[in-house]
Amino acid sequence: MAIKLQNKRSAEFSMASMSDLVFLLLIFFILTSTLVAPNAINLLLPKSDSGKQLAARNIEVYIDADKNYYVNPKGQNAQPTPYDELLFVLQGVVETDDADQRTIILRADKSVPIEYVVAFYDVLNALNAGLEESQRYRLLLATEARS
After folding, report:
1. Predicted model pTM
2. Angle at 109 between CA 119 and CA 85, to 5 degrees
């Protein structure tokens, strides 16, 4: 007489939990990739006690430690803009800007002398001279929060 086992073992694998895990990982990477700054110019920003966060980015200008200007840089391969061409580049960017808040965010390294920031402010004044009062740009200086 043959003895039969009451418990049969199954060689199947349930894929339901695996699809849940893949879905959660996908959501995690999508959310964290939006938090990473797409611009990869390394700057040490000055510290500030102001806790304001910028909701929308309009036009960004960077001044790195080597005193190079960058207008809306795209990644680490961004080319610096010479100071003489800065006004022309900004005028080209302004033509395509359709944001409600007309601001230019200046991100200057903390080692940059103030004269380079003032020189950019002169370029901004020349840019605003050709625009109507309601279309003029404001300058925001980006800082890092104190810890």
Report:
1. 0.61
2. 40
